Fold each of these.
Amino acid sequence: MPFGYRKLSMTASFSAAYRLDGANVTMVVEVIAGTPAVRYWGPRLPDDLVLEELSALAARAEANASPAVEAPLAFTPQAGQGFPGRPGLAAHRGGLDWASYALLVDVEQGASRLAFTSRDEAHGIELVHELRLLGDVLAATTKLINRGTAALQVDHLAPPVIPLPGFVGEVIGFEGRWSGEFQLRRHQLSMGSWLRENRRGRTSHDAFPGLFAIERDANETRGLAYGFHLGWSGNHRLVVETLADGRRSVAMEALYLPGEIMLAPGEGLETPVIYSTVSDAGLGGVSRQFHAYLRARPEHQRLRAKPRPVHYNSWEAVYFDHDTAKLMALAERAAAVGVERFVLDDGWFGSRRSDRAGLGDWQVSPDVYPEGLGPLIEKVRSLGMEFGLWVEPEMANPDSDLYCAHPEWVLATPPAPKIPFRHQLALDFGRAEVRERMYLDVAALLEEYPIAYLKWDMNRDLSQPGGADGRAGATAHVKGLYEVLDRLRAAFPAVEIESCASGGGRADFGVLARTDRVWTSDSNDALDRLSIQRGFSHFFPAELMGAHVGPTRCHITGRQLSMPLRVATALFGHMGIEADLGELDAQETADLAAGVALHKAHRALIHSGALHRIDAAEGVNAFAIVAEDGSEALVSYTMVEEQRGYFAEPLRLAGLDPAADYELKVVWPPRLKAEWPLRDGGRFRGAALMQAGFQPPRLHPGTALIFHLKR
Ligand code: DGJ
């Protein structure tokens, strides 16, 4: 098949099926009652399968007390078709034209792409559903065009709704809080809806726009699992609906506030992209397919072009207490332990001596840096490091020159008083003049200084997102942000940008289309980080995951964890350090330097290998990163809690070449105290390591081992 699709028995009435294939997945789209719908989304089907078999297998008789013919669960389930569940589109013109009944009028087929146009002349509605298969990941959007003669108010519009087989009965949601992002929570599905809404205006810490849906007993390595994600950095709604007739589906959409979307005649609205993939190799299979998709994107290639530089970030060392001499001394210590990029965090500009003032004034503070940032940057570069800078352009402190000059530039809902939130207000990026000003301010910095990296932060919710004309402006803000980021990237293509929002509050494929790294969480507590990073890894690969070695006593949890553990956790991401290096003792400094060296020795593998999370014993966190060709692997094994028995369970590895022999070596920690027959390593067959596993040593809680395996 030249284009990766197959069209069957096409007739004028579109009674056809269309097929998209990846290496591991197949999607079959069928036209049912005049509307396109997913007939099959699952593991790869045989090339020669006659697709009509799928409809024959799914055919159902008339149900009791039900319509004679079921209304289709189409890409956009429609009120006008009598769909008994949640419609994919809710729109009207002053209460009229609400029952859309758009029928297919055109199908376009391209390489791994299908586009279906449906029209409802009576209600002036056109829908275009576009599906692309990128590797094994489906990326799909819905576009609505107002073909009527009056404005159309859109209450919601979902990208194509995707049915789930009835035997997929469990949802895993990703929830959390500041400093505790990406926590998994399992939910059994029952009749009705599993609903998660986010109205914080940014992707959020507590309602990550993604979910897994799995069949009973699926785990990391086995069973059917689906992954879904909405590539959008604002308000969203995730719905998994189970109808009384047993049909089940996933809808993910941008959440529009009242009146936020009003389409003039001829105007269109395109949804954010819903991403989905499916695997019968369990949750791990889904994650690896998401990772492969992200890694194959054109915008990812620049990250592969050079090793991801090890960071030093000034935040937890100095907070707002900037002093050039101290920062230069930190830069020297950072370079000495192997850092390659020095990032100057919050506090360098305007009157920003605390979080109460200065946001919005993006001029270097003459009080703190009388000669500008030049001397510090020169020092950093003379030590062989790149320089990075923190900014938060979407915000203003009321105590700032910017706010005094333009109090009308912030989002607000008068007469309600503005809700305090870290002493700052959100600028309205829906306004062209705000976007222009922030673009110019950031561009001026990039033009003046050799800045390799921007940490783009965003530290409050859009709690009262009223825009200039009094209308809700949350969606316009996100689109405005995307526009400014795109413009900066076009003008300064070499500058990397990090997406940070009080840690991991803005991690999604939408913002990642214009950024290069996510600040995963403000928590540098190595044990908390293990679960945060594990959650994050369900969607994102290691090279996008900012992971820093924190101070001896974690500033957020107050917990004191050893340097070898802190290194072992940070080493598996885009590694960095965020601590006052002057406070570390000689042993900690030596261990840190050894950890950075270990990361550098293996970062090519960490940043390109296939992640295999391991279903280890309770209280143990384990995973392997295996080279694409199976030639080597790095295995992380952390004792999080004391074990009940004398010994931990054997650890079964995953992802190795079963037929190959591997040389196993313990490469971390630098001083392993435990008595253990395998401490000097050995040579083992991949099949034995995966089927029988090996006996780990007895370890204190808070101890991590890293193994290297070489074929
Ligand atoms: C929140 C970020 O997550 C931190 O890393 C730090 O940059 C602070 N903001 C600075 O205000």
Note: The radius of gyration is 27 Å.
Amino acid sequence: MDTEEFKDFAQSMAEFIGNYLDNIRERRVLPEVEPGYLRPLLPETAPEDGERWQALMGDLERVIMPGVTHWHHPQFHGYYPTAQSYPAIVADMLSGGIACIGISWITSPACTELEMVVLDWLGKMIDLPVEFLSCSNGKGGGVIQSTASESTLIALLSAKAKYLSRAKELEPDQPEGVLTSKLVGYCSDLAHTSVNRAGLLGGIKMRGVAAGDDYRLRGEALRKAIREDKEAGRIPFFAVATLGTTVNCAFDDLDEIGTVCVEEDLWLHVDAAYAGAAFICPEFRHLMRGIEKADTFNFNPHKWMLVNFDSAAMWFKDASYMINTYGNDPVYLKHEHQGVPDYRHWQIPFGRRFRSLKLWFVLRIYGVKGLQAHIRKQVALAKQFEGLVLQDNRFELFCPASMGLVCFRLKGSNETNELLLKKINANGKIYMVPSKIKETYFLRMVVCSRFCQPTDMELAFNEVSSIASELQ
Ligand code: PLP
């Protein structure tokens, strides 16, 4: 493909994407295909001779689109949002064009330096304490990881490095395996499954501590668990506070948990994967009170801040445990400017894309005010849906709406609610996923698409309501 063809191809793709998004409402939210639908649509082997790009474009509607779940459809209300915007798409194109691998500063200085700057910008937007910013010239700073799960694992590995080395100093005769088996980490029993998985991957026992009746993990419950483990000879070393649980967008009491972590000397990681984007609005920042007591913090601009996947912003107060324990410096990667971040040490994979471009483009083109408007609009839409639920006395809220999530159910049994959701999703107008806390099953309506309007909330509730009427 020569340059002229590339330009035509790219222009045609830009038109395709623009038309797709402009007309997304006309599509069914969930595809109707069965597993294995795609193979018969394609030849059994790759083409011997290269084809024209026009042939490929012609196959998108035939092969791909029938099997796409339309996450940006205004009636897609499942999971949590995955972000998408034109500036981020264009930035990804540039990242593909430059196609560098930012394993060290010298492999593309702009790749490292833009990441440092935009994570400082973003940190300032949510009022993170200055120790988390690289402009403070301390041991901390921000880095873009792929996902929140990866950030949790990296936080756990950093904490493990710190506390294992301390345990070895205190008990030099104990084999490392014995000391590792004594380490124990904590999270709310409502934390995302990736937190427990980080424990499995890191070879560490993670203990779920029961959240209170308001679904928030509180300091005293954590302190009690830590004391029990200390008495049993274990080494408490790590805790994860969740700001915006996946199940119902509850906020652990970070301030209390932070105090306990400081007093009991634990590494505190904050997982704000979805809800953290809201902290760009000052009115939500009270929910991150206590952040100065955390060691690492993560939220995903790729969830709720209009930056396409993958963009998980993670900040360290002190990245040296990660760098010094897991970093490696073969001769061929040394360069004249050691001392600037070589971000490969701050992450698990070796290679890394020029991901900061998407964040930079989005921050510049939307501006802080544009992004705040996006968050506020989606929170208001969730409130509107909550109001519609409350007006219909057949329904009840599972808990008050939080951010862009409304957890609700038909008054009645779990089975009725399971049937309700099954019928809603089978109908194909809207899409939602359920959740369950302490044996109560409920539906989650999340405002996901940036195209969502008040009429979409009415449409969603009318659909729920009319299917509920069929059941009764
Ligand atoms: N943590 C929380 C609170 C989440 O809500 C989610 C996903 O929704 C995750 C972690 C996992 O996110 P990721 O896919 O970025 O690993």
Note: The chain has a mean pLDDT of 96.
